[in-house]
Fold this protein.
Amino acid sequence: MPSPLHGPSIDHVELTVPDRPAAAAWYHEVLGLIPVHGTEHWALDARGPIMISGDGGRTCLALFTGPKPEGAQDGGFRRVAFAVSGTQFLAFVEYGRGLGLTPMKVQDHNISVSVYFEDPFGHLLEVTTYDHETARAALTRG
């Protein structure tokens, strides 16, 4: 029997971090993510998440307090990718390099261009754009 779901979107990705407010502040500074209105009460419980988003809550990161799960990068979770326009991509690459984000590896995927880096908690992140022609300029800027 086929799934009754057709084209589900991602609601949220859960990340464990040692300090939820510090993580939320980092994601705000680097990616512009802000707390999702109406979810603040979850963060009042130390076991609940701080929900942050860059698209009004359609897709969220749920920040939970705790150590990085053992083998998290080697197990199921690999990275979180954020989609942006080509112009935003170029601006972010320069911004990220200015902040000293590492490794800030820009890669051309022929139909898209991505930059890979880590948050301070060891989570792998990606900013990607499908505006290939505009974003290719990031490849020549080193």
